[in-house]
């Protein structure tokens, strides 16, 4: 076992930002395989392995700024010659010329895809080109709210510009329900419904991606949440006003509904009312008894900003990317106590009180129904999806938590962009 240190990628480089690990722990590689992407002040470079080995542990994460020579990973060389530098003199590595790099199959720059190339990507850690990072900073755009359309999901300038355009829709209200719409009015209609203690901002990246894919996207704040003035004292109240929103936004068209967590309850009710073309549920509530009661009660009656910060970490298998100011804002909203009654009725002595299993069985005979579930979900148990009808398509994300659309945004976008086409 040996330590891989941060390489020096140029004479003036003193440190760099880790953009992405291109090999995952436990994965073997050979000489020339790209291991890590590092962003310097001048460019983003994929650093190749200088010999074979197996990555056993990463010591830094995407977004970390690391000084040249500091440890970044543990490598198992399995008896091969030590090429990492280990604890000895640090080896300076200069990136190969573009021609040599391309010949070895390791690209350092991505040509723009064709204008009509489908949105896709490999998900994983955030990868951002320097020009996109600067543009986002100047525009005040949170990079975690974007989905990259570059190679392996890299965020590029066009993604920042497209997000700014997609966010141009103004907030509106119908029957007390706050909502915003984006994308072409003639596009395939899609309604996004958030989960417990969330609001429509949790869909920012996915809504932007779907709008850029040509869909007409509406995102709502459910009763008791966000800027909606209606309250929700019970799970059934979460569907109040949704029918009016659908009727107004989509002018009689049946939307494809995508709902997360507890949002599955009002979304399923809307589908049962015959007002939905298809139903996609991400980490849905209502499939079994298990639920993180501490999270539910903690978000309903938050003890402090710090407590909210800890609870939010349970949502994702990766860093949430929320700034301290954003968490403080969330705490301020939760302090209003709008979720207390809802939390009391959502939790019973044995766990969840909501059950949508039989409803999904019925709906799967009438329309496409799909479920996306993360195996590292800490709020609900992904194994509850095993009770679903074989007619329900279930997409598994072994390395995702309760928010697969945060942990693997490109894959989720691809599933929806391909499936919501009629």
Largest sheet: 8 strands, mixed
Low-pLDDT stretches are: 87-124
The name of the CATH topology of the largest domain is Rossmann fold
What is the correct CATH architecture of the largest domain?
3-Layer(aba) Sandwich
Count of β-strands: 16
Shape: globular
Helix content: 25-40%
Rounded to the nearest angstrom, the distance between the terminal CA atoms is: 53 Å
* Helix/strand/pairing category: alpha/beta
Overall number of structural domains: 2
Order of helices and strands: EEEEEEEEHHHEEEHEHEHEHHHHHEEHH
Spell out the CATH superfamily of the largest domain: Alpha/Beta hydrolase fold, catalytic domain
Q: Which whole number gives the mean pLDDT?
A: 83
GO cellular component, one term: cytoplasm
Region (Disordered): 105-124
Pfam family, one: E3_binding
Subunit structure: Forms a 24-polypeptide structural core with octahedral symmetry.
Written overview of the protein:
This protein is of the alpha/beta class. It folds into 2 domains: 2-104, RNA polymerase II/Efflux pump adaptor protein, barrel-sandwich hybrid domain (OB fold (Dihydrolipoamide Acetyltransferase, E2P)); 130-421, Rossmann fold (3-Layer(aba) Sandwich), CATH 3.40.50.1820. Helix content is 26%, strand content 19%. It contains 13 helices and 16 strands. It has an 8-stranded mixed β-sheet, sandwiched between helices. Strands 1-8-6-3 form a 4-stranded antiparallel β-sheet, with no helix packed on it. It has a 4-stranded antiparallel β-sheet with strand order 5-4-2-7, with no helix packed on it. Helix 2 runs parallel beside helix 3 and helix 4 packs across helix 13 (409-419). The radius of gyration is 23 Å and the shape is globular. The model is unreliable at 87-124 (pLDDT under 50).
């Amino acid at each position: 076992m040996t330590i891989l240190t941060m390489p020096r990628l140029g004479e003036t480089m003193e440190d760099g930002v880790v953009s992405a690990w291109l090999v995952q722990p436990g994965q073997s590689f050979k000489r020339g395989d790209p291991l890590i992407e590092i962003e310097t002040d001048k460019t983003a470079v994929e650093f190749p392995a200088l010999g074979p080995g197996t990555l056993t542990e990463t010591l830094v994460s995407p977004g970390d700024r690391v000084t040249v020579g500091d440890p970044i990973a543990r490598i198992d060389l399995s008896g091969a010659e030590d090429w990492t530098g280990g604890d000895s003199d640090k080896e300076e590595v200069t990136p190969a010329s573009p021609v040599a790099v391309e010949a070895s199959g390791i690209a350092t720059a991505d040509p723009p895809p064709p204008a009509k190339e489908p949105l896709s990507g490999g998900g994983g850690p955030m990868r951002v080109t320097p020009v996109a990072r600067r543009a986002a900073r100047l525009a005040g755009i949170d990079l975690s709210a974007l989905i990259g359309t570059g190679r392996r999901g890299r965020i590029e300038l066009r993604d920042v510009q497209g997000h700014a355009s997609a966010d141009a829709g103004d907030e509106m209200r119908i029957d007390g329900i706050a909502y915003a719409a984006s994308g072409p009015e003639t596009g395939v209609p899609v309604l996004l419904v958030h989960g417990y203690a969330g609001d429509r901002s949790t869909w920012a990246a996915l809504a932007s991606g779907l709008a850029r894919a040509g869909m007409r996207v509406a995102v709502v704040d459910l009763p008791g949440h966000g800027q909606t003035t209606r309250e929700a004292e019970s799970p059934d109240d979460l569907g109040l006003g949704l029918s009016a929103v659908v009727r107004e936004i989509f002018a009689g068209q049946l939307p494809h509904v995508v709902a997360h967590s507890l949002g599955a309850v009002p979304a399923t009710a809307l589908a049962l009312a015959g007002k939905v073309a298809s139903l996609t549920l991400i980490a849905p509530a209502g499939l079994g008894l298990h639920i993180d009661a501490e999270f539910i009660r903690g978000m309903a009656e938050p003890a402090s900003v710090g407590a909210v910060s800890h609870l939010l970490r349970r949502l994702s298998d990766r860093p949430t990317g929320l700034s301290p100011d954003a968490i403080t804002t969330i705490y301020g909203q939760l302090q209003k106590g709008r979720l207390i009654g809802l939390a009391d009725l959502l939790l019973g002595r044995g766990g969840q009180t909501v059950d949508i299993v039989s409803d999904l069985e019925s709906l799967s005979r009438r329309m496409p129904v799909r479920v996306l579930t993360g195996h590292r979900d800490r709020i609900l148990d992904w194994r509850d999806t095993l009770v679903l009808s074989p007619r329900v398509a279930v997409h598994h994300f072994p390395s995702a938590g309760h928010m697969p659309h945060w942990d693997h945004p490109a894959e989720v976008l691809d599933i929806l962009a391909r499936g919501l086409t009629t």
